[in-house]
Specification:
alpha+beta, flat, 15% strand
């Protein structure tokens, strides 16, 4: 699972993600295969990694080609 959240989420969801990351690190058998990435500095709700935006544009182009 890949979790991306802004570190200044307007709905404070980043606080829940910090807790989720702590709990996931305790899973051992099997280990959780999670990645957590925080948009810094001060990224709001809806923040996305830049490659997500490019992937979305490519997908939309493929849809419009059909």
């Amino acid at each position: 699972m890949h979790v991306y959240v802004g570190d200044m989420d307007n709905h404070y969801l980043n606080l829940a993600v910090y807790l989720m990351e702590q709990e996931a690190s305790k899973l051992k058998n099997p280990e959780a295969n999670f990645t957590f990435e925080y948009g810094r500095p001060m990224k709001p709700h809806g923040w996305r990694r830049p490659h997500f935006l490019l992937r979305g544009l490519r997908f939309r182009r493929k849809l419009t080609d059909h």
